[in-house]
Amino acid sequence: TSVKLYGRVTEQAALLAEISNPTIERVYCMAVTDPQSGSNDGQPSSWSASIDKISSDGHKRLFIVSAGNVQMTDLQAKNYPDACLMKSVEDPAQAWNALTVGAYSTDMTIQPNIYTRGYSAVAQSGELSPYSSTSNTWKSQWPIKPEVVCAGGNVATDGANFIDGHDDLSMLTLHKDISRRLFDTIWATSAATAQCSSIASELWASYPNMTPETVRGLLVHSARWTDAMKNQFGYPDTKTQGRRKLLRTCGYGVPDLERAKDTFNNRVNMIIEGEIQPYEKTQSSNPKMKEMHLHSLPWPESVLQSLENTKVKVRITLSYFIEPGR
Question: Whole-model pTM above 0.85?
Fold first, then answer.
């Protein structure tokens, strides 16, 4: 019952914002998850299904959802990074249509004082944040979650105890009551989700006619793994081992606004928006292939000839919204 209530509240919150100003597009930033309401194995829940429905029905919407956090008790029991590998992305972040955001670490330096003597950062700069949950334990039929990671801070440890929310290892933000205090700190996947939502908003403001699926697709398309992530999870470099673990822990990497937004002489973003029904199912048969689209790369022949035997890398990202099961 509570899960269905979460879904209704999420939908009502989205609709209230649209009623107040129905003429603008929005990025819905939701840094709220529940470790108890889902099955924690990637299967849909009433809450995740409601987000898939809100995203795809009628007026489409882009939801950016936090992956959920590893707790200090998890780190004490399993240590890092095993605690992250064993901690499932939380409900409703398994929603297929949502862009789910995990966290990675950028800061390692702790200013010495009497309270942190003997403490150091858990993760190295560029590695998966100790706060970040993953889909490492999910079966292959469930989606890659998180799809991207943004800076979410680090955790301090003396080898036995763990400190979360340490100022030196957290992200700077404005305080909720700036008349009393100007700045505050934020950490974990909530901080990462806020950053990703900001990137998505700037991207959409630059190209206001894009669909939500395209905004989501460009963010993922722009993402790259850090060298630290590849060293941490990317070996052996095979589809079923290192690359699978990278995807299931760090998604497709860290999104980059400039890479998503701009085209350069050595990098071209080609965006194609359309509709396709790739499969069909009749009463008398199993699902069959139905439609396919063919696209020509709009490069001048003279440019291609001038490249001769130059190696080029083509990166293709497909972004679409599913209709949830009824």
Answer: yes
* Under 8 Å between Cβ of 34 and 98: no
CA dihedral (90, 316, 128, 151) in degrees, to 10, reads: -90
Q: How many helices (H) and strands (E) does the chain have?
A: 10, 11
* 248 token code pair: 């299931």
The bridge status of strand 148-151 relative to strand 156-157 is unpaired
Q: Is 185 exposed, middle or buried (0-12, 13-18, 19+ CB in 10 A)?
A: middle
Phi, psi angle pair for 277, to nearest 5°: -115, 95
Residue found under tokens 């898939």: 52
Over the chain (326 residues), the average pLDDT of each successive run of 10 is: 75 89 92 88 92 90 97 96 97 96 96 88 98 97 97 96 94 91 95 97 95 96 97 93 96 96 82 88 83 87 86 90 76
DSSP secondary-structure letter at 48? H
